[in-house]
UniProtKB/TrEMBL annotation:
SUPFAM superfamilies: CO dehydrogenase molybdoprotein N-domain-like, Molybdenum cofactor-binding domain
Protein name: Oxidoreductase
Alphabetized GO MF terms: iron ion binding; oxidoreductase activity
InterPro entries: Ald_Oxase/Xan_DH_a/b, Ald_Oxase/Xan_DH_a/b_sf, Ald_Oxase/xanthine_DH-like, AldOxase/xan_DH_MoCoBD1, AldOxase/xan_DH_MoCoBD2, AldOxase/xan_DH_Mopterin-bd_sf
Aldehyde oxidase/xanthine dehydrogenase a/b hammerhead domain segment(s): 41-148
Any Pfam family: MoCoBD_2
Organism: Streptomyces mutabilis
Region annotation (Disordered) ranges: 1-37
Highest taxon in the source lineage: Bacteria
Upper taxonomic lineage: Bacteria, Bacillati, Actinomycetota, Actinomycetes, Kitasatosporales
Length: 772
């Protein structure tokens, strides 16, 4: 017996059990995700876990070449194999032969005459066993005439057309200010950004089930179910009402991660066989099929005055779109518009191109366009500081953007833009302690515990990166979302087609309803295309647009709930408030619980949210193209072994413009994840494609950062200056740390080594200092 218990027994006192921890509630609380337990225990149903009676298995034959003419396709041997139920090629596509994300449908379901990239689908097979399906796919005989691939985007301008639409997808010439303007100091740079893969935790999977009406249901880890439905309907020659997409658990998404090259064949096979068909892609197929970040070539020239203030920026930006257009037009618009960064630049002349090559397709990956230019313009700021002998942070502070300033696109920044405050916060944050130069602290070396480095060769560097991204779609995109909120028996249900991809929408929806209606138990219904569309889950649109729709619907239900009480007491509903499950009036005359007010009623409302419209960039790159923007400043501290070129990121200090913190724990996790993803972009992630062929399409050849690679991440400041046009005033937080952190790491390596560091990821030879 403990002394405390003995004392209690002797005095006759009884111990009181500690009060239970209060359950987080409403906006501003760290409400845990509803599916956290299931995902932790491994019981959460992902697409790869699906099953149906009479299930067949699918496999896709993909091209081994980056560029080839298809002479013939012979499926005879595959069709005759025991257990094979169907083989489909381009000849079996009854509807539109082309599809694609973005504004252009330029990608064939199956290659017919020409193969344009490594891994392009040629045929698909359905069989009664997955091994049989794979063997049958391999038995399809394709005769190729191999062609020389165009893999250098600079050669695409002069090369023969790789596509009927030509090699140039988009050209944006931005003109802003005086072309004759010049500065006392001029710095130039040539920068290259490699190809990163979104590397989803779970590879793509799906199930297609034929319907009695001749349609099909697709069970997919889709992030844009209505977009996928419409594409599939066009492909199958069906009406959208005959195709239903049901969203299964999404195993993480940092991009539009689904490979439509297997989604579309899946439905074709189900329609052809009349049986459910399932496909789970291998990791290799995942690398071959889905889109990647645009590799980018950037040439920059900055003019500055003697005080380090930027006078003019000239730049050329070339995006490698790979074989198809996908979202390259959108990525180029972001790259050109943000080419000068979050700095005041009175004169800017930017040329931007997106071109087709025979490399793997590029598309939407978090921070597309903005990430690539951030690495370049921050390198230029370092060069200005070095040439003038100024502190790199001070040079940035003399140029930073603020609310009311004008972007090179001519758009006035009307949203909060506390860039100076963010930079000052990370600059003034205490630096981490220096490592001890002793064998006992060998783990502090860039090479790790068993690294080859020597303590005497380690140099520490401090660098900065300031990033900006746009929120929601751009250039006239119609951003709209619809949500329904129902309340019955004290339980609220939210119906909205916004997909939970890990960004926390379902948790946010629960918090909104809790805050607005005072109902503790809130469920978010599964997503399918029977619900009105909510758009793709990217660029923070579900926090803003779908969250806004949920809030409006919940407020409409709130009015329905309060109107009878307000009428009874002769007051307006605005004089009543809901808090902690209670309804009270401003004068205290009325006090009741939400449960008593509901009293078995069923209330519901449907609402839409549509932000203010934007416009396309014109022929000189001018226009109000963006709904809103978000900003982030990061200070990186790195240790570099200057003899072998190994880099260890010691610490990243982060200050971010968030508008309003809706869920502190979730927000912290999103920022830390984005920063860590940026570290991978800076140091390890590079999908190598010699002659257009993906080398080592697996997670041993493609080096993702692990928990051991993650640095100390210090979130030193969150600026909560609400954006008045955004619901709740909040801004999305995931993308901008991805944009800023690679630039910050590269800046720190430059500071440690004195080398230019003009390529991402940073190769060891770029960090080696000779002659020491």
């Amino acid at each position: 017996m403990s002394n405390d218990a003995a004392t209690a027994e002797a005095t006759g006192a009884t111990e009181t059990a500690p009060a239970p921890e209060p359950i987080p509630h409403g906006l501003g609380a760290s409400l845990p995700p509803a599916d956290a337990r299931a995902k932790t225990e491994g019981t959460f149903p992902y697409a790869a876990d699906l099953w149906a009676e009479g299930l067949l298995w699918a496999a896709v034959l993909r091209s081994p070449h980056a560029h080839a003419r298809i002479v013939s396709i012979d499926t005879t041997h595959a069709r005759e194999m025991p257990g094979v139920r169907a083989v489909v090629t381009h000849e079996d596509v009854p509807g539109a032969p082309l599809h694609g994300r973005g504004s252009r449908a330029d990608r064939p379901v199956f290659a017919s005459d020409v193969v344009r990239h490594h891994g392009e689908p040629i045929a698909a097979v359905a069989a009664d066993h997955p091994d049989t399906a794979r063997m049958a796919a391999a038995a399809v005989i394709v005769e190729y005439e191999v062609l020389d691939p165009v893999t250098d985007p600079e050669q695409a301008f002069e090369a023969e057309p790789l596509h009927p639409d030509g090699n140039l997808i988009r050209h944006i010439p931005l003109r802003h200010g005086d072309p004759e303007a010049a500065g006392e100091v001029v710095v130039e740079g040539l920068y290259r950004i490699g190809r990163q893969d979104p590397a989803p935790i779970g590879a793509e999977a799906g199930l297609a089930v034929p319907r009695p009406d001749g349609g099909v249901e697709l069970y997919l880890a889709s992030t844009d179910p209505h977009g996928d439905r419409d594409t599939a309907a066009d492909c199958y020659g069906l009406s959208p009402e005959q195709v239903k997409v049901v969203v299964t658990g999404v195993p993480g998404a940092t991009a539009d991660r689904e490979d439509q090259g297997f989604q579309l064949p899946l439905g074709l096979l189900a329609l052809k066989t009349g049986c459910p068909v399932k496909l789970t892609a291998t990791r290799e197929e995942s690398f071959l099929g889905h889109v990647h970040r645009h590799p980018t070539l950037l040439r920059y020239r900055h003019h500055a005055d003697a005080g380090g203030r930027v006078v003019k920026v000239e730049a050329q930006i070339l995006l490698d779109a790979g074989a198809y257009a996908d979202t390259s037009s959108d990525a180029l618009a972001a790259a050109v518009a943000f080419a000068c960064g979050p700095y005041v630049v009175p004169n800017a002349f930017i040329e931007g191109w997106a071109v087709r090559t025979n490399n793997p397709p590029s598309g939407h990956v978090r921070g597309e366009g903005a990430m690539q230019v951030c690495a370049a313009y921050e390198a230029q700021m370092d060069k200005i500081a070095k040439k003038l002998g100024l502190d790199p942070a001070e040079v940035r502070l003399r140029n930073v953007l603020a609310t009311g300033d004008v972007l090179p696109t001519g758009q006035t920044v009307t949203c909060p833009a506390p860039v100076a405050e963010l930079l000052q916060a990370v600059r003034d944050f205490p630096l981490p302690a220096l490592p001890k130069d002793t064998p006992e602290d060998e783990w502090l070396l860039p090479g790790g515990p068993e690294g080859a480095g020597e303590p005497g060769a380690v140099r520490r560097g401090v660098g900065y990166g300031i990033g900006m991204v746009h929120l929601l779609g751009a250039e006239g995109a119609d951003e709209v979302s619809t949500a329904t909120v129902k309340v019955q028996d004290g339980v609220a249900t939210v119906l909205c087609a916004a997909v939970e991809t890990g960004q926390g929408f379902t948790t946010l929806a629960r918090q909104i309803v809790q805050e607005t209606l005072g109902v503790d138990e809130v469920h978010v219904a599964p997503v399918d295309t029977d619900q009105p569309p909510a758009g793709a889950g990217c660029r923070g649109r579900h926090t803003w647009v779908s969250g806004g729709a949920v809030e409006r619907a919940a407020k409409m239900v709130r009015t329905q709930l309060l109107q009878p009480l307000a009428h009874q007491f002769g007051m307006s509903t605005e004089l009543l408030q809901i808090a902690d499950g209670k309804i009270t009036s401003y004068d205290g005359v009325l006090s009741t619980t939400v449960a008593e007010a509901l009293d078995g009623k069923e209330l519901w409302a449907t609402a839409q949210c549509r932000p203010h419209p934007t416009e396309p960039l014109d022929e000189t790159g001018q226009g109000d193209a963006f709904v809103g923007m978000a900003f982030c400043a990061i200070r990186a501290v790195v240790d570099v072994d200057i003899e072998i070129g190994s880099v260890r990121v010691v610490e990243l200090a982060v200050a971010q413009d968030v508008g309003r913190v809706l869920n502190p724990a979730q927000l912290t996790a999103r920022i830390e994840a984005g920063v860590t993803q940026g570290v991978g972009i800076a140091l390890t992630e590079n999908l190598r494609t010699p002659r257009g062929l993906i080398r080592h399409p697996d997670l041993t050849g493609y080096a993702l950062p692990t928990a051991l690679d993650a640095p100390d991440i210090r979130i030193v400041k969150l600026v909560e200056e609400r954006d008045v046009v955004a619901p709740f005033g909040a801004k999305a937080v995931s993308a901008v740390p991805v944009v800023a952190s690679p630039a910050a790491v590269a800046s720190a390596v430059r500071a440690a080594t004195g080398r230019p560091v003009n390529r991402l990821p940073i190769r060891p030879q770029a960090a080696v200092v000779t002659g020491n």
